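Deliverable D5.2: sample structural annotation.
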Amino acid sequence: MPLPDRQGPLAGIRVVELTKVWAGPYAGKLLAHLGAEVIKIESRSNLDEMRAYGGVDIDAAPYFLSINQEILSVQVNMKTAEGLDLVKRMIAEADILIDNIRPGAMERSGLDYESLKAIKPDLIQCSIKMWGSDGPLGYQTGYAPCFAALSGLTALVGHEGETPKGMNIRYGDSTAGALAALACVAALHHRESTGEGQFIDLSAVEAMTSLVGDSLFAASVTGEVPKADGNAHPEMAPHGFYPCGESGWTSIAVANEAEWRALCNTLSAPALATDPRFATLADRLTNRAELDAELSALTRPHDAMDLAEKLRNAGVPAFKAMSSMDLCSDGFLWGRDAFRMVSDHRNGTRPIIGPSWRISPAGPLVERGAPLLGEHNGYVYRELLGLSESEMDDLIARKVID
């Protein structure tokens, strides 16, 4: 059966994914959330690791569910010549190919850009690798923590005077994936203008290095290598997270003297306002550790959300440090349609974090959850490639469709 109209600015664009884990699938998800039809090539004998990560059911693993909404799944055994031929036929019907598999694998399979141009002259191919596709380190593979560490970002994340810790989230993958999606959209514009396809060679390490540009610039100007400094700000104090008992933490950022006085008044702390250690911004910056200790004692008895609201009402930038559960129940996010309800095959409908943009007049549909393995075999093989039912049955029997 034909699939419903995707709507959105990329409606009519078809993307083929040879991707695993996070960075490549994240790029595909963003394009799908803009309306593109995104087909993920998989096989039971060579699963995306995310289908087995955090669960016991390859069709219900939480990490896979979280990153593959509105994606179509087709099974192909790429270790067979017939399977590779089917993949090439799919690519011939696509506008964009995204891959983030091991360096050299595409070339060994005859899926390098030069070979694919013979099949689809205006193809846009985006290849995501740790170090890119060439150079002395182009052969190396890595995961998101590698990207962050090698880019210089991990060294900047941690508390002052302590060993840098980095962050235990996949910002390396999501950053590389977002930049890949952006590059694909730019390449589509180029093709629209010139008729030419493009090869996009994306280095995840370079994507992460782009996030530390201000630190690189500071080092070139001051001669000092930037170090991890926690939540400190060079021109603001107080500036950080402050404990609120069992209710979590409240972030507070004071930019001027009026905000400083409003903070002291809200906390009913006249002694803090007149303390000579904190009389001016220069004093507060010099005595930052003592200031944070004093403020922590004052914020601890408060509820984090209530304190943040009181401070904002007084003109002080503040907000509760939101947990995952806080976000799931946040009225503002629900009011903005940040969460979308998608089909889940097993559990009816469930909320997912939707696209962070609002597009009018025709935004894309975000209604389907992550696909079952091979859920769209019929659509791809019958509708797209024109195979008969008996041909499909034969390929399944011989595990070409695996």
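Annotation notes: The chain has two domains: 14-211+337-397, 239-326. Residues 14-211+337-397 form a domain with the Rossmann fold fold (CATH 3.40.50.10540).
The annotation will be released with the project's public dataset once the embargo ends.
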